[in-house]
């Protein structure tokens, strides 16, 4: 039975099923309270968690999003059930930390990670097309580096308890989300104040985590594998997610096509593009999209855990140093185009240089 | 038979190294790819089969090995 299930999840229909379920649930969560086009956004949710911990003081984006710990714990459950939990460590953790920091900065200049880029597209936010174009270029550059021998080096097996550390942290985050002690900050207005009921978010997150661990669903990997070796396996899952979320958005009245004044988005095209070039490059060099990093963390991959922590710390810097973009504003019929300020633009530049230096410097010869 | 060790490498490095190693082989020769995650095993198997080569996986010494026969 377990073998048959594993074979199904590894098949084309398995990844398509995961894409359909994720697309449907991600379109439903805004209806149940999540911010628009933000049924799932790993970067945004980690940014909200950073805010809830007080790592930044942007009052509108502070909330302990249960989806993030649920992703990890759903993946952990799947890994344990199918005998795939393997604690491992030692593949350039510090480099991964900084890749996580810059991935978050790039994502917050665009205002969303690849998951939200897909959901924004499925909701009619055409700025996402530019973001996804940037993402594709970033992933393509990262893929080219990997083809030339870029490597973060090998991980090795470590003590099981080490692999359990991030899942334990996630249990802690869930308990804090349920208990809501006074030292956890919660937005009273803005995106952080918009959320589905906690148990629904938790259940959705657990299901997505479970399915994604079994099928290896990865938004960045979908693009990378197609660009690099014309493998369409993961891409099928991504396309299934887009189509399902689009149809669900249409049915739920959430499809609002256009470029300007989209929800929690800006129409500064250059920075939508460059922000996602940076994010895509970071995800490609680190071997997985922000969701995949969480799912790997659930399997015992502590290096992915370090990347996740880098993203959370990066969110703190992004808001404390005003690197994140401002959304478009529409007041009395006058549109003010948002986007990043000078700080954010410089940070994207530094991030791109950082990634390019890594891409050229960290190479191994192989044949 | 050529053997490459891809244990501990992040996705997609096992696949990239497998494809590079296959290019150096003549038709009929075999390649052994050592992997340490089920994901890498699945990816290497899928890559080999997409190239229409025979590929089988087996457990070995606590890890896994994928044997590919180039056609």
Could you walk me through the main structural features you see in this protein, from its secondary elements to its overall organization?
The complex is a heterodimer of chains A (367) and B (71). Chain A has one domain. Chain A is 65% helix and 3% strand. Chain A is built from 16 helices and 4 strands. Chain A has a two-stranded antiparallel sheet. In chain A, helix 2 runs antiparallel to helix 10 and helix 11 packs across helix 12. With 71 residues, chain B is an alpha+beta fold. Chain B has one domain: Translation Initiation Factor IF3 (2-Layer Sandwich), CATH 3.30.110.40. Chain B is built from 2 helices and 4 strands. In chain B, a hairpin with a 2-residue loop joins strand 3 and strand 4. In chain B, helix 1 packs parallel to helix 2. The radius of gyration of chain B is 11 Å and the shape is globular.
The rough form of chain B would be described as globular
User: For the record, what CATH class of chain B applies?
Assistant: Alpha Beta
How much strand content do the residues of chain B show? 25-35%
Q: Tell me the series of helices and strands of chain A, N- to C-terminal.
A: HHHHEHHHEHHHHHHHHEEH
Strand-residue fraction of chain A? under 5%
Measured by residues with Cβ under 8 Å of the partner chain's Cβ, the largest interface is: A-B, 29 and 23 residues
Nearest-angstrom radius of gyration of chain A? 19 Å
Structural class of chain A: mainly alpha
Number of domains of chain B: 1
Dominant shape of chain A: globular
Give the N-to-C terminal Cα separation of chain A: 39 Å
Query: Oligomerization state of this entry?
Result: heterodimer
Individual helix count of chain B: 2
Assigned CATH superfamily of chain B: TusA-like domain
Strand order of the largest sheet of chain A: 1-2
Q: What is the fold-level CATH name, i.e. the topology of chain B?
A: Translation Initiation Factor IF3
